[in-house]
């Protein structure tokens, strides 16, 4: 599949990263979002990416300038998706919002356009009934900090044509992702099927058992020999995303503990503008979080 234009629906944390990675790979890329405010917020997120590419990948300023020139943002959906080869939906993790987003594509989308959802928990078969061209639809799930953690988990509903799957794999490789094909629908794919139980356990220890989140992370870092704990990852994914995910768990299970997590995240973080890495503060302060400092690891006398 020859991809010349990619459109990202939603300029949030991952949407912005996917868009920049696509532009960095030499493809004309457009971010569509619903308001000027959302576009301004996306621009702020994108502005943080070139320094990180330069630091982590030793990329030249010239190459970053070329990437920036490939990327544009708009609130005009028709112009955004005109002649798009690939559309990636990266809107909030709520089925009603996703349904509305796909319905809005109907008048403009091309018959051969590949449509991908970056949903982190919903299954393709939960979404494809309201996708305009369902024969060209599947899921492609990205990890945060995608220029470093360059996995693309590809999952599809039963009956998806093989050429659609092949085109998705090919596109992932074009934007320098490592494709992982998941042939059975699994909520959370592989990444989140392993990762979300850890995040849930940590949030429940904090909200339901009233344990200190920093202590929880210190215990995990020392015990497991890793560079950050679950609350460091919550900051990376964003407080909004964590709230949406935990709300979903509550709605599916009616477990009141998840409701308690949502309430505490909302009151202590969301309402105070502490959104995680994107706002400069969540459970930690950025750009130099405590877990990256030597004193984070307790010393034994």
From TrEMBL:
It is an enzyme of class 1 (oxidoreductase). GO terms for biological process: fatty acid metabolic process. Residues 5-182 form the 3-hydroxyacyl-CoA dehydrogenase NAD binding domain. InterPro entries: 3-OHacyl-CoA_DH (IPR022694), 3-OHacyl-CoA_DH_NAD-bd (IPR006176), 3HC_DH_C (IPR006108), 6-PGluconate_DH-like_C_sf (IPR008927), 6PGD_dom2 (IPR013328), NAD(P)-bd_dom_sf (IPR036291). Its EC number is 1.1.1.157. The record marks 141 as: Important for catalytic activity. Pathway: Lipid metabolism; butanoate metabolism. Residues 188-286 form the 3-hydroxyacyl-CoA dehydrogenase C-terminal domain. The keyword Oxidoreductase applies. GO terms for molecular function: 3-hydroxybutyryl-CoA dehydrogenase activity; NAD+ binding. Keywords: Oxidoreductase. Belongs to the 3-hydroxyacyl-CoA dehydrogenase family. This is 3-hydroxybutyryl-CoA dehydrogenase / 3-hydroxyacyl-CoA dehydrogenase. It comes from Paucilactobacillus wasatchensis.
